[in-house]
Amino acid sequence: MTEQMNQPIKSYKSEEKATWCPGCGHFSALAALDKAFQTLQFPKEKIAVISGIGCSSRLPFFLDVYGMHSAHGRALPVATGLKLARPDLEVVVVGGDGDALAIGSAHFLHAMRRNLNLTYILLDNQIYGMTKGQTAPTSMVGTKTKSTPYGSFENPIDPVWAALTMGATFVAQGAFCNVQQLTQLVLAGIQHKGMSIINMLSNCVTFNPHMGKDVLDANTIQLPDDYDKTNLPGALDLLMKSDKMPLGILYQNDKEVCLDDKYAQLLEKMQTANENATPQEFLHKLI
Amino acid sequence: MNSLTIRIEGDSGDGILTLGKTLARVFARTGYHAFTYSSFLPVVRGGQVAFQLRVSDKPLLSQGDLPDIAISLNDKATENFSKVLTQSDALLIYPPPVSPDLQTLVDKIPTKKICVDLMKISSDTTGSTRSLNFVAAGFVIGTLNKDSDELTAIMKENFKTKSPSVVEANAKAIDAGFSIGRQHIQLCSQFELPPSDKARRLLLTGNETIALGALCAGVRFFAGYPITPASEIMEWLAKHLPMFGGKMIQAEDEIASLGMCIGASFGGVKAMTATSGPGLSLMTELIGLAGTAEIPLVIVDVQRAGPSTGMPTKDSQADLNLAIHGTHGEVPRVVIAPQTVNHCFYDTLRAVNIAHEFHIPVIILSSQSLSHRMQTIDIPEPERILPYAEEFYKPTLDENGEIQKFVRFATTTDGRPSPRSIPGTPHGMYRCGGLEHNQTGNPTSSPQTRTIMVERRRERMHAIERAFTQSIAVDHKELEKGKGQPIGILSWGTTASTLREVLKTTSDNGWEITAFRPRILWPLPDALFRKFLSAGFTTLFVIEQNATRQMAELVKGRYAGLLAQHEIKVVSLCKDDGTPFTHDEILRMMFDSLSKDMEQTQTILSTMHSIKQQLNLGGK
After folding, report:
1. Do the interacting molecules here have an ipTM over 0.90?
2. Which residues contact B406 (CB under 8 A, 6 or more apart)?
3. Which of the listed CATH numbers 3.30.9.10, 3.40.718.10, 3.40.50.920, 3.40.50.11690 matches domain B477-615?
């Protein structure tokens, strides 16, 4: 057992074969996460990956770590409970655009503002794939899907904008066709102490095939080298003005104390002040 | 006097809640049993508030019926009291009525009366009417010939964070009320209670006691969302959990509350949430996840009158079906309903243990009147129900020196769960979730594996049922009584506590009734139900506070054969008006029902008449 532990971990993948369609962008997220874990060499048992429901949410099954494929939209509450209860674990959340921004939208907003030390990888392919092709909260206006046969009317949500305005302290965007950059973003997100979100622009070869590499290349832009990622108004200004989706770390705030640390400080203070070793002792003082 | 019931009614600004709670504490500190009912009584409208306190030298099981001492703090209250006070031995304390009509009405009340302007005494002694409640408290303590020191001490404890001038004013108010009250000692001598045992007890609400139980059971994670009448559980734990290394988080909604508990429990920390009906409706989604992923946790549902928003501050027992069946698909679960504040403590310990023994969600069904009432309880003994020692997966070597692979949902032969692996445990990594899964936890839709998993969940319920008859104590003391008598009674929740007092009354009158008051409601404690239904009665009264006879229908469905075999007629005595059943109300409903059925024996009829006369019940 000891010998095994001393060897570097070469893969975090499980024996379960990934069931996504060939060519699916979600494979990139799995690869990036695996590579990031390899770089960090976290013991497998110290990692938990929590997801909701949808194609992207199948991801935990493909990793040999602790994991839960919870309920549609509920990945963030489950991950929040797990991380609060077990701050020693590395908790990563994975979900799709519908999971994060439609059914789980309330949880998304509150997770961002809580600034718990979680890493959220949002797999944004602008379509509901698992239910076979309906409009998503990130679908562009005019997108024709099975539920919008005459084109979608509603304005899409920009997950990056939503995360920035709701208080996430690490916000990045990557694309499925650039696994190398994606890996770097995931790595930086995991290392950031606080709520990190990496929006991965994904595709759906079956139900939203137009989001291919060519389209993404034409509609995205790399952040310039001199970009100041600590400037929140600057990040928002860039999103407002740019007609292309920026790729890279848009914002990182290392100053704000994350929620787990705030709880740790409170507990230390309260437990020190508490004269009762056990609840039983405390009970007798209630009289 | 067996017990003394004091009802105080007045304006919502009169500090009636403080007055009632302070008086309850005075009695509790001097060794008496106290039982309060703090909801807005149905006769009360607008800004009127009422508080009822019942005290006795013996344990109390219900809030009492008509008051012995009625304290009116305004004319509206006097008018309300004039409608209910019919017993000549009661006492009405009331302020001088403004209208002559009201005075005429008061003159007709057959009770003893003291007209006293407590408001004026407050102004005269403290310069403000704000100490009215403490004038009244002092007055009551004075009339009852008790010592005012305890009252003053309790007031000072409760006001220790307030300015010294407030404390001083209240102390003056107590003294003034007390000396005037002393002048009426003679009138109140009939209310004297036998001496108390001077035992030290706790005076707690149902909500506080559930929270205390959770703390003692080892719950160290709580997520909740504010909702009447359950919020106090969250508030109590928010304050106390951090002292013992636990965490409380206020979630964005009830779905998130349960989701967070699922996450914490997956992480190996005992987790609980508490809500009321509307929250439980939302949580039904994730009850399914906890059930299929076999994640232990406890959900408290403090029932309030529904449907939808209903009457948030009123009592009801209509969430039974939701608690038992709420979620799509079929998952094993346990529903447990405490009947008294004391039960709230032990049933929470049990709920946490059952959840961790069987890897299931356990629902504690409380209700509004139980959650907010204060009741004296003996100092809880958590050591009576020790935490269940759950065995977790530990990596072990097989005969070939290989580490044995962890299989989360390994097949067991006795319906009990296979061990969990807690994150952080090497080699124990697994994935689980809401999808149907195979033994390892990975998704499957194979009919064979599906069948195995469906059976696994069904067998879990059987294993739980077996455990109930073996080790889990269910209150069934009256099962042996009244064998061969024509009447049997079934009740649950706080209604069953009131029923116990009814049984005492009937028993005191020579009429033993076989009664069953189960606390574990799901799965139905089968062996005990069979024993109960075979006691020989032919009329079964099922008393519950809902309109659709939820418990009665459960029993009729499950025990149709047994009911037919023993020719038992099930008669539901139901109401759902927002107020808890009272002792007299249950008797009245039983008697009304029995009177309709002239085949009942003459013995019962004569007992009925004797009780009716004793209690002045009226009715048909």
Report:
1. yes
2. B393, B395, B421, B427, B428, B429, B430
3. 3.40.50.920
